Amino acid sequence: MLKRVLGIIGLVLIVIGQSCYYDNEEELYPDDNCDTSNVTFSGTVNPIIQTNCAITGCHVPGTGRVVLQTPQQIKVIVDDGRLEQRAVQDKDMPPTGPLNNCEITQIQTWLNAGAPNN
Questions:
Q1: Out of the domains of life, which is the source (predicted)?
Q2: What is residue 25's predicted lDDT score, i.e. its pLDDT?
């Protein structure tokens, strides 16, 4: 009887232990549709920045933050490394949560190409 009770308790502990794990959505469902073949500033990078940084109200005039509304303003944070550091490496921007893996890869691809204004 004691063996049966211990067996049931052991089985329950194994089932509970197997059900507690952390799934990373991006690892489970990789973004295989991320197009990095033709990354441009105007068609790829600027829309990411405008949608996630400027339009959200963070990097606009009057906030005391770096304004990111023109290519020249964005070039400043590219040249001093802040874009790559904050959005790509540290992934602490935007504050609402990091960019998705595809957006990060596209920005890194553009930076690796010399960040052309194309």
A1: Bacteria
A2: 59
